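Sequence only, no structure available. Ideas?
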Amino acid sequence: MTRKDALLALTVVFIWGMNFAVIKFGLHNMPPLMLAGLRFVLVAFPAVFFVARPKIPLPLLLGYALTISFGQFAFLFSALQFGMPAGLASVVLQAQAFFTIVLGAFVFGERLQRKQIAGIALAVGGILVLIQGSINGQHVPLLGFMLTIAGAFSWASGNIFNKKIMQLPERPATMSLVVWSGLVPIIPFMLASLIFDGPDVMAKSLIEIDLVTISALIYLALLATIVGYGIWGTLLGRYETWRVAPLSLLVPVVGIASAKLLLNENLSTLQLTGAALIVAGLYINVFGLRLPGTQK
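Reply:
I predicted one. Tokens follow.
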């Protein structure tokens, strides 16, 4: 990987790691489902008028959009609203990697390797430690934790749809898929907000929208989604997957650090232990018990 592309990859990691603290800022004056809906309004418009629709079957597009866009962020935004610390959310959401492996085994008949089983076992141990931390009053609301897990499962389900899409004879451009899949969840988000928050709350949040919320929406839509996925997709197309994908292991590191700096979140020893176990599980899943860059 060239120095320029490595810098681009690390920029995306930084953007995605900061994403969780930014969501917290956006939620200070707007309900979570509405905030998520407006995010995808900015992702889809005006881009849908300039980006061609991906040539994929509608059921696959809907499945991808309703899992990786609607499901993932409906659960994640709600989890953060219910008090899930942003730093820990950045770690727990990475459980999607293990859910993806398990779902892939069921859907595609993929065989689990020993390193994947070991990584899953270690990460499950980390999740149990975090659950224990929430039970012991370590400022991790159990509802927020479980919603984050649900978000990770939705992300993993979207990965399965994404793999089906990428197996088509004509693979869609990354930006085309991002933009048009962003169009799908807008109405579900707004309907869900209407049901759970009510029209008065929605109207009030629009009338009283402030610069912090607007800035958060711009960051989430333009930087985290369009720029982030655009660059990441380009790098995945340019290099082998193993060169690019492991860099996402740094996202929770940035997530925890940014939550500490921007939100003054303090993690207990038990929470840090659980988070470390999950990241270690992710590492083993990618590299096994070897140093990155060494030969198998």
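The chain has a mean pLDDT of 88.
Hope that gets you unstuck.
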